[in-house]
Amino acid sequence: MSRLTYQFLSVALILGAAQLIRSYSYDNCIEKPYSKGKIFNCIHRKGNLSAIISDLPSSVTNLTISLDPVVHILNYSFDHLTELQNLRLDHNLLRSIDQFAFHNLHQLHSLNLSFNNISQLKPRAFRGLHNLTFLSLTHNKLKQLPERIFSTNLNLTKLIMRENLLTNFSGIVESVSHLTNLKTLDLCVNSLTSLSHSNVSLPTSLTVLYLCRNNLSTLGCESSFLRFINVLDLSNNSMLQTMAFQGVNLKRVNYLRLRSTSVKVVEFLNISNIDARRVDFSGTGLQNDSLLTELCRLLKRKVEQIKDLQLGFNGITTLTSYTLYYCPQITRSLDLSRNRLHKSTNCLTFLHRHTQIKSLTMEHNLLTSLQSCNNTNNVHFKDLESLSYRYNRILSVNALAFYHLPNIKTLLLNINTIAFLHQKALTGLRRLEELRLDNNLLTDLFKDNFKDNVNLKILNLRNNRISVIFNETFCTLSNLTTLDLGGNKIAHIRPSGFDGLISLSKLYLDGNNLKHIDTSLYHIFQDTLTVLDLQNNQFSFLTETTESPFKNLIKLSDLKLDRQRPHGMTILPHAYFRGLHSLRSLYLTNNNLNNLAPDAFDDLKGLRFLNLESCCVGVVKLQPGIFKNLRNLTKLIVENMGIQNFSKEVFGNLTQLHVLQMNRNVMQSIPVDALQSLPKLNYLDIRSIPLSCTCKNSLLQNWLQNNSNVQIVYLHSLKCQNEPSIKFYNFDTKVCYIDLGEYLFLSTAAVVFLLTVCPLLYVKLYWKFKYSYYVFRSWFSEQWRRLREKEDNCKYDAFISYNSSDEQWVMDQLVPNLEGNGSSFKLCLHHRDFELGRDIVDNIVSAVYSSRKTICVVSRNFLQSEWCSLEIQLASYRLFDEHRDVLLLVFLEPISERQLSSYHRMRKVMLKKTYLQWPGSNCTDPMQAQELFWNQLRRGMRMESRLETEDSTRSDDEMDHLETSDENYYLQP
């Protein structure tokens, strides 16, 4: 493999890996929490279908695409979703589907295309969907079906095509005839006029056929065409005549609906082979006693008993004791709903021959009252277990109204206008288990109302006008598990109002006028209550110190305190939830809490779900540790709270949190460490949060893009706060990062360089640096400028640089010979001419630059003195760098080459300049040698300081070269 190929493959692998770790977020869909990549909803999104689903993983099994502007499904649109089993494309603007649109969906079981604008289907639209069992095309504009459109959908069991414009029933039959597993075919609300068909038949597996709300006037089918149908709905075909059934085999039909047709039911039963017990007589025009009697006589001739008799939608106004007298015995249920019954039912006397009936439904009538039924002549219906008077106009229920129904278990009186419920209206109902009185006008409840209902389990009194719960109202309801008092006007509950409710599990008090909760009210069911709904009351607190009203509810798992009126709770007292160790769900939404104390939820160690949406007013700063004990919380909703801080100190203890919804808050940044402290998080909703696109969010952007465990809802739709045209997920963060590797390399290289060079510089350039430092100091104090200005008018002829150990020679020999003996040179000496109180460095600099020459009296002590070295450095600087002949060297004693090797600067001077050696006592003629010495020194002092010789142009490199030469000039006397 070539190097180029290898590099190419490496880049490809890197790009592939980057694709694999792409952000766990979807442009237009939301994964259902806990579904592990299998269930997705794409609702209210923009764009075409491909754009909506392009980034979904191949693991999807359930997909809903609804309320979107999807108009067209292209070929191979779902090719990458090979595991898809349930697909909903309902409530869109779909008009056309390409013939290979559902290609590769071999696992699809259910397809819903209802509520679209499909007017035509291509012949191969559903080809390849071999496992499809359910298909809905409800509410489209289909006029016909292509031939054999379902040719490959052999497993289809339920096909719904209601609310279309289909007219050709024969074509439909041809399309479904080969579907050997089809059981249900729904063709309601179309434009079919008959059931005429070609030589093909309906599949023998088809048992349920809905043909309601068409334009059928005749069936027009062969006699055996419907022989396998069990359920046949022909209702609301107003033109369908009785003779349409002549000769049609309906023997296997178990349920037939003929409501709102022109079929005369008695005549129909005479010409049809259907079992009369299987016909639904609702809406068949049986509005008076004579017609009902005629039907009953006919039924009685055919059967002895009938389980269910449906007589709804017939316009029946009254029922006498003879109305159903001639009917076969009704053993299970009678439905008289949606008639016009307006008089009292006279204690069900019209059923006096049907005492075995178990269920009676009289909903949607005009009944206004229920009278007393304690007359000894009344028939007792001991088998009746369910009675429904819903949706009537009942105003009053009198005493003993149900006395004749001693074994009734379910009584539905809801959605009436009951304002009067006699205290003994329910007397005798000892086996009653469910009582619904909701949505009436009841104002008072009394002790005797439920006295006999000792087995009652569910009592619903919602949406009445009850204002007070009196003492012992429920004292006999020891088996009651659910009590719904929501939507009333309850402001007071008397101390013994809940006495007797020793089995109560669910209590709903929402939508009342309660202002406080009395702990003593709950002592009866404190060991059994699991659900308590107190939302939409008037709870408020003036102080933050209030005893917890829930402290003894040891089994409470669900508590709702939402929407307290008129302005919310405003204050949540400390330890308000003390004792609720078993609580699993808590709702505090839509309140106006000023603050949430750090210990507000300390006792809720078992909490799984917490909803705080819109619970607080203004900008909220959550206190550190507020959720510290909620280690079992799995779902947290903190939407629209005005939260300004999201930090690890606040949320860091939620180690079991799976779902976090915090959209519509005001924080501009989210620290990554806070998110990383939530190890189980897999769903995060941060929509409508004004995240700033700045460097403080650069780490967040990177985390959101590359985290593979947490779903970020619509990440790619999040906009920058100050620049809405820029998306948060890809704003430029390059300026926020320093290449750490390069930074470390440069830092390391610099350190190594300094550690290597500094010792060399110290050895070689120590005095250069020190000199430069002192020069800089002088320049900074303008001393340098003043000295340069005085250079041509020097104060001294020579500055004498010497060590204090050589001071005697200077004073005894040098000074007399240069300042005396007619020489008249003016010398600058340390002890005599330096300015008192002035910095010694400034004195040295001033002396060097105030003198035409510098005479260095060199001895071994001189070489060891730092100040002497500084003085010769200053003078040599003028010599080499300013090209001025200002330096004269006088050696008091012989110094070997080895001893001078450490003084690089002085050796360069000795290579460039001649120097004077003081003649010692070993000379032949010391006097003459010393005289010559002084003459040479005086002559050197009189020379001009400007160097005109060729030496002045020599570089330092040339001077270094001269170190190896033997051209050293020693001036010997």
UniProtKB/TrEMBL annotation:
Residues 945-964 have a biased composition (Basic and acidic residues). One of its GO terms (cellular component) is plasma membrane. The keyword Glycoprotein applies. GO terms for biological process: inflammatory response; innate immune response; toll-like receptor signaling pathway. It is found in: Membrane. Residues 1-23 form the signal peptide. It is a single-pass type I membrane protein. Its main location: membrane. The chain crosses the membrane at residues 743-763. It comes from the Eukaryota. Pfam families: LRR_8, TIR. Residues 945-973 are annotated as: Disordered. Keywords: Glycoprotein, Immunity, Inflammatory response, Innate immunity, Leucine-rich repeat, Membrane, Receptor, Repeat, Signal, Transmembrane, Transmembrane helix. The keyword Coiled coil does not apply. GO terms for molecular function: signaling receptor activity. Residues 794-941 form the TIR domain. Belongs to the Toll-like receptor family. This is Toll-like receptor 21. It comes from Paralichthys olivaceus (Bastard halibut).
